User: Which sequence fits this backbone?
């Protein structure tokens, strides 16, 4: 297109190795600030005799033949200790300037910070009527959000690794949730819901691929318009189809399938091994996508197409076909994610994915376009999203809305190079024209 | 169109409508969009489906099925037209009797009310597009502009002469601050503006909820997410007086000023020339000494400022207060603006027509829902379909077998975030 990106010019000017080190230090300083905040506000800010109680027993005890006693800790000193750990990580980063795992360290800091926040929120002589933190139920609750984010981010990995920007993840979530609800309600079988979600997500992916690859339309515009269209269509169909026929949208939740023995492990059991089928499917998909992308010939083709389509075409790879396959498969994965969301949240409602597709996009970027990174990012973002919705119950005088901003702000920091460095596949979003 | 006509002066009318030019493609995209809407109506209306299902038993019902399909689709689109432009019946009644004009003019007034902020925000998005930048965060900027304007209009008290301009200025400033972030980040760190603005939208939504629930700004005596009501001195009054009952406000004047400003900026000023050069060919722009960083930041300041102005115009001309649902979601004007800018080909006057069209679809959709019971979200679907076709002129050309004309097509706005 003769279209030199403006990004290129500014980035190549800022990219010598010196900058890399400076940016690592910027990250370290940010982490240190978080540590100081933790110590001062959460630690020293709470009265000395305040204590927080940690409980571990899940709310439904059927699959938990174990009890763990309540752990009571002094809020002030626990949070000071957590803040010191953050400070130690920051110092290590500042001094050693590691080249790898910068964002992983930041993620660890973020999780520690969130837990410090939780302890502070639930301190006993404090504003909240609830004076305990149930670690297990928080992990179980956030695992649902995390699962949906992983599906979305994996979809992004599939599409963007082949060079097509999939900004329509949100639309695929909505479509998957809608048809998932329709099929789950009529067949009472969540397997069909998953299939339906995959089909509709794949179709949306096909539409995206059709416009992006055949007509070389702007992928971001097509993605945005598709989201608008599907959001409108879902709202339309909700009023035309689901509202008059309530048994099309019963809102049953997917049953949990406990894995024998493993589900009885304290804490980890309920979180990892007593989940719906969607959760296990997600784990399998992460492994499969990772393997396919990095260990197979096809994955090599995909990455070649995403980095340098012209070179890939020279060695005989069918660029357009690879992109079609990946975008449709990616769409299908996001569609399953939508069905999974429905299966954990209940009946379809208009707008109830509330931008989760864009957090998945954020997780994709924070996870550096890798399945494993996407999982780590989804854990962090899932936890923060879950807490921002659920801290209301603690009636604390802090604004949960700033917690809601967290995933987005982190992602802005990431793309701006303030937190680690990311690099998108080189041909990501560039239309490809056969010679 | 004029270029085409000048080049080939003796073409027949038929040739003119079968050769692709931007206007022809846009027209056919509109037709296709309405066809998509018609298909959706017919496949989801029980009466229509029943009529077609009867054909499984006997073919005799075919005329009836076709008839009922056209009836339903026609009723929907007729309701859209009468709800957004004018209802011929009341129009003739008013014309003959001289009475009931406010009632007759309400649909078109509503369309203009809806179009006013849309024009302003779309022009901002269009200016960014022309510079090769994608401001997907116009909605968030409009939200911040709305908050700033509503806060200034309700919490500061002064006479109208000062209050109204300063309220609008507060909105512009809010949008500019919000637009400066992606601009500066793009210019100085290379962060892709699409990601930053997309994420920033959600930051602003969270901030909106925080603002309308915070003590200084929340409506006194309210527990819900409703902000304070603006002073009468800060609002954009109805153009024809409050007694007329027509909501169209002095915001129209603001929008007209913005259109003239944008036309001057893009077509007449040297800054606008730099914008267009940067958008058309960044390397040429750099070679000719245009400072890319300054351009990026300036464009985002202007684009964000206009979005903020749109936000405050929206508040000051309609509800006069904001709530937690202000512009939220995919239906927010900032998102519609992307599609409007594309449809209007980023030109100020094109955007005016596109905004009026989209506003008419939206306003008419409400009337359609009231009369026929077909949900107004159909309007969103039609709008998106139109833009999908406008963004893909080759597809339109293939469908209608248009002959090739000199140049057509929407220029690619962005190239993704690969480097």
Assistant:
């Amino acid at each position: 297109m003769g279209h030199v990106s403006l990004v290129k010019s500014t980035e190549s000017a800022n990219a010598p190795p010196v900058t890399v080190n400076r940016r690592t230090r910027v990250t370290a300083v940010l982490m240190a600030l978080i540590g100081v905040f933790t110590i001062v506000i959460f630690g020293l800010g709470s009265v000395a005799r305040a204590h927080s109680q940690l409980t571990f027993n899940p709310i439904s005890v059927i699959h938990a033949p174990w009890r763990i006693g309540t752990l009571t800790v002094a809020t002030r000193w626990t949070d000071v200790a957590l803040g010191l750990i953050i400070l130690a990580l920051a110092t290590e980063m500042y001094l050693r300037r590691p080249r790898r795992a910068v964002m992983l360290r930041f993620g660890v800091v973020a999780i520690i910070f969130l837990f410090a926040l939780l302890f502070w929120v639930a301190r006993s002589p404090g504003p909240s009527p609830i004076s305990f933190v149930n670690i297990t139920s928080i992990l179980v609750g956030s695992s649902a959000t995390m699962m949906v984010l992983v599906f979305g981010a994996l979809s992004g990995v599939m599409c963007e690794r082949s060079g097509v920007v999939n900004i329509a993840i949100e639309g695929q979530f909505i479509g998957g949730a809608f048809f998932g609800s329709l099929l789950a309600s009529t067949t009472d079988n969540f397997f069909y819901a998953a299939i339906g979600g995959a089909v509709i997500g794949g179709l949306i992916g096909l539409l995206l691929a059709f416009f992006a690859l055949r007509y070389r339309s702007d992928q971001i515009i097509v993605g945005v318009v598709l989201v608008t269209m599907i959001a409108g269509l879902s709202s339309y169909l909700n009023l035309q189809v689901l509202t008059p026929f309530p048994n099309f949208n019963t809102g049953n939740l997917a049953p949990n399938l406990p894995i024998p023995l493993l589900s009885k492990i304290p804490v980890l059991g309920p979180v990892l091994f007593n989940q719906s089928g969607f959760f296990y499917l997600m784990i399998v998909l992460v492994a499969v996508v990772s393997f396919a992308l990095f260990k197979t010939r096809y994955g090599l083709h995909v990455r070649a197409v995403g980095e340098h389509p012209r070179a890939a075409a020279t060695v005989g790879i069918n660029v357009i076909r690879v992109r079609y396959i990946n975008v449709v498969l990616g769409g299908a994965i996001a569609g399953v994610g939508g069905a999974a969301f429905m299966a954990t949240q209940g009946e379809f409602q208009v707008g109830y994915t509330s931008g989760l597709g864009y957090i998945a996009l954020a997780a994709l970027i924070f996870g550096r376009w890798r399945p494993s990174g996407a999982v780590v990012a989804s854990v962090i973002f899932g936890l923060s999203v879950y807490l921002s919705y659920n801290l209301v119950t603690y009636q604390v005088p802090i604004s949960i809305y700033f917690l809601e901003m967290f995933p987005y702000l982190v992602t802005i920091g990431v793309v701006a190079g303030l937190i680690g460095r990311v690099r998108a596949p080189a041909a990501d979003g560039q239309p490809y024209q056969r010679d | 169109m004029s270029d085409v006509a000048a080049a080939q002066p003796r073409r027949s009318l038929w040739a003119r409508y079968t050769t692709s030019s931007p206007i022809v493609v846009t027209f056919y995209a509109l037709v296709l969009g309405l066809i998509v809407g018609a298909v959706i109506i017919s496949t989801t209306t029980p009466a229509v489906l029943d009529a077609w299902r009867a054909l499984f038993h006997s073919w005799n019902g075919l005329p009836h099925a076709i008839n009922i399909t056209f009836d339903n689709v026609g009723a929907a689109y007729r309701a859209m037209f009468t709800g957004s432009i004018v209802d011929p019946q009341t129009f003739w009644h008013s014309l003959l009797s001289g009475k009931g004009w406010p009632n007759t003019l309400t649909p078109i007034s509503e369309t203009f009310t809806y179009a006013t902020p849309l024009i302003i925000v779309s022009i901002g998005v269009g200016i960014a597009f022309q510079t090769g930048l994608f401001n997907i965060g116009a909605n968030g900027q409009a939200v911040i502009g709305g908050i700033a304007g509503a806060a200034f209009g309700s919490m500061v008290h002064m006479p109208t002469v000062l209050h109204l301009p300063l309220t609008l200025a507060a909105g512009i400033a809010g949008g500019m601050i919000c637009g400066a972030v992606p601009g500066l980040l793009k210019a100085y760190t290379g962060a892709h503006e699409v990601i930053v603005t997309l994420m920033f939208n959600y930051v602003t939504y969270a901030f909106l909820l925080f603002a309308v629930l915070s003590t200084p700004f929340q409506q006194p005596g309210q527990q819900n997410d409703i902000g304070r009501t603006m002073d009468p001195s800060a609002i954009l009054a109805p153009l024809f007086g409050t007694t007329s009952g027509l909501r169209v406000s002095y915001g129209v004047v603001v929008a007209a000023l913005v259109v003239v400003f944008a036309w001057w900026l893009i077509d007449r000023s040297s800054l606008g020339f730099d914008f267009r050069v940067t958008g058309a060919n960044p390397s040429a722009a750099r070679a000719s000494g245009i400072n890319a960083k300054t351009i990026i930041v300036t464009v985002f300041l202007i684009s964000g400022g206009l979005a903020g102005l749109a936000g405050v115009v929206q508040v000051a001309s309609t509800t006069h207060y904001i709530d937690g649902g202000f512009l939220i979601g995919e239906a927010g004007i900032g998102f519609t603006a992307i599609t409007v800018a594309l449809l209007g080909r980023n030109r100020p006057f094109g955007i005016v027509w596109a905004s009026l069209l989209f506003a008419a679809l939206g306003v008419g959709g409400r009337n359609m829902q009231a009369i026929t019971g077909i949900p107004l979200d159909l309007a969103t679907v039609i709008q998106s379909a139109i833009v999908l076709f406008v963004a893909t002129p080759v597809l339109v050309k293939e469908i209608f077998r248009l002959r090739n004309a000199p140049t057509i097509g929407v220029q690619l706005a962005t190239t993704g975030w690969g480097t």
Observations:
- The longest strand of chain A covers residues 51-55.
